[in-house]
Structures are given as C-alpha cells and as structure tokens.
Fold this protein.
Amino acid sequence: MRRLGLRAQLLLLVGGPLFLLLLVESLVSYAIGLHTANQIFDRWLLDSAYSLALEVQEDDGKIRFRADPTAIEMFEWDELDSVYFHVAGLNGEYLAGRPQAWLQPDIGQLALGPVFSDTHIDGSRVRSVSVLADLGGGEAAVISVAETLNKRTPLVETLLAEVLGSKLAFFIAALLVVGLAVQRGIRPLLVLGHELARRSSRDLTPIQVRSAPEEVDLIVENTNQLLHRLEAALDSREQFIGNISHQMKTPLAGIKLQAQLALREDDLASVHSALDATSRAADRMAHVNAQLMKLARAEAAVGRGLQVEPVDLVEVVNDVVEQLHGLVVSRGVTVDLALPPDELEVLGEYMLLREMTWNLLENAVRYVHAGGRVWVTLECVGQEVILIVEDDGPGIAPTHWPRLFERFYRCNTTNPEGCGLGLPIVREIALAHGASVDVVAPERAGGARFIVVFPALAAAAA
C-alpha cells in the first residue's frame, strides 16, 4: 500500500479538523438562522391571534365575535399556506372560525402567556398558537391560529443550501491557501531530497540548503553529521583492510618461506621442522581470521541492533570458566570467582556477551605468569552491573592504556599468539550493549584490571 506524501499528510492533518470545525459551525449557523426564521413566523401568528382577540367582546352577558366577514376572508387568504383560526369560550363554546378545534389548550398554561405547538390539520403539518383574551368580569375566550408550513420549508432549505455553500467555498479557499503554504514550507525538504538523490555514493561532502526553516536546518545538520561519521567509518574500514593485509602478509610470507625450505631440504628432520613452522604460521592465520570474524560480528551488532533478551551474566561467567578449564590447568593459574548467589541479568545477546567475557578472561590467563592468579568479580551497584577481570601478571604500563582498544595494537610483542584484536572485540560488544569498558589501576599488586559497566536490566529496558 502506497504511503501518503508529506504534503498530503499535512493537508489531511489541517483539512480534516478544519472540515469538522466548519461542519459544526455550519450546523450552529443553520440552527441560529432556523430559530430566527421560526421566530419571525411565530411572531406573525401571535400578532394574528391578538388581532382576532380584539374582535371578541361581551354583549348582554354573552361573548360574541364581531369581526367583519370581509376582514376574515382577507385574514385567511394566503398564496402558499392555509390559515386556520378557532375562537371558543372557556367552557368550549364555539364562537367563530374552524368549527373543530385542533387541540385542547390548558387554561392554566394560557393564563401565563401564549402557547405554541406543532400539530396536524387535515393531514397537513401546521404551526399553532393559542392566546387567552380576558374580557373582564371573569369572562374570557380562547383564540387559536394555525398555519401550514409551505413557506417555512423552502426557506429552511434555502437557508441550509446557502450556509453549506458558503462554508464549502470557504473550505476550498482555505485548503488552497494551506496547500500553497505547505508547498512553500516543504520546498527546503524537496531541495534536500534532490540534493541527496543526485549525489554519488562517494560524495560525502556537507549539504548546503539555503533559507531553510529551523527544523530543516536541524535535519541538514544531522545529515551532515551522519555523512561525516560515514566518511570516518569508510576511512576506518580502509585502514582496517590495510591492517588485515599487513597481518596476513607476514604469516603468508612465512608459510611460503618454510615451504621453499622444505622443498630444498633432503633431511627428513629438517623437512619436519619446516612443516611444523608452516603449521604454526597457518594456525596464526586461522587465529587472526577467527578474530576478524568475531570483530565483524561485533560491529554488525552495533549497526543492526541487538536481538535482546535477559541474559544471566553469572551463567555466562561460569560457562567461560568451565570452557577455559584446560588452559587454566595447563598454566597452573588459579581463578577466584566472586559471583552473586542469584541471577544477575542484563539485556543483550548471550553469544556476544560470552565472547566478550571469554576474551577478557582468556587474556588474563594467557598473560599472567605460570602459577599466577586471576580474579573475576560480578556485582550490582545501584542501577549498574559491573564485571571486573583482574590478574597479578606483569600488568600494562599506563602509557599504553589510551591505545589498548585500537585494532591490531599490541603492547606486549613477546607473545607471538596475539594479534591485537581481542580488546577491540570486547569494546565493540560492550558498545553494542550500551556498556563501557576501561582498564584501570589494579587494586592488588601488579597485574591488569578491566572493568565493564552494564546498565541494569530495568534501566536497559527503559
């Protein structure tokens, strides 16, 4: 389903409420006009009733209606409507007009003033009014006048058509004005869209949009910042590829050299030695490749976002310690665990968190001296979960700390197995989980101390 454009959405957002407001205003205007028209017609009925009341008089103790027949004929004549009147005494005695009364008014209510009502006469809808003519001496007469609605109905229809027509014309004019305003308002966005569309994939220079509103300026500024980050990311990727090439070049050259030596050797022991060196070089390449794949997965997690679920870090640490048991035993290292008795959960991906913990703990076990000690602490402090890995090995000089998490940076070149990717992987995984990782001064004598700080489960969910 095709989505609406910004112009159409703005017109709907403005035009929809405007249409409803005009509709309500039309109904109100119509109701006011209808009330005014009915008031005018009702006033004529009332004046007619009072005029007839003047013709009711008391004569020799009897109530008589003395209107001239010609005047009555003129009173009842109307080009469009039928006019009826009925005059009767308080006891219902017929005096003049239509013989049959179309309603029986309440005398007590009439004493308070005129009574209007809607009723039917001979199957036609009429508007009726009744008044009480006080003749004095306790005598009175009831005068009722009614008129059909033939003049009122066209007037009501005309009034409705005029109100709706005028409001519709106003609505169309308002939409045109709003449309022009919207078109002018989104023009900077269209310029921005055209500017981005015509650019090549390699053009990351800042975008310039002149005379743009503040909101569009904010979009342009954020877009330029994104372009700057993309440029930095591409530069970093090119440097990364160069580093990969450099890292692969050395073991490949070693493999080629050892293979050439093996081909020239006749002595089986020398050939075996050359093949052993070739195997070690291949192992180093495999290790570098595995680390590069892990780093790529960690970076991808930062870009795509995590498939988050509650992960128990206590379980992660125990799993890593169990898997590293062979290396720990072979080096005679003692691993001291300070873990909470209950689960300690953060939001994230289990395998990535396991990889991060593995790198920290494996580095500590490999770089500590044989028979050394490694401490792993996991605790919750306020709204943060803290993982600490510390050892009593040779440690890391503070001058190296600022570059420890750079790719391929190695502060200890005496270990041929390292490739300088373990800690960058730790950093990328920590960033993907909204955590921070730092190297700090050790609390125990010597060694290195790494701290990873996670937001607690509730804070991460928020």
Remarks:
- The mean pLDDT is 80.
- The CA atoms of residues 294 and 425 lie 7 Å apart.
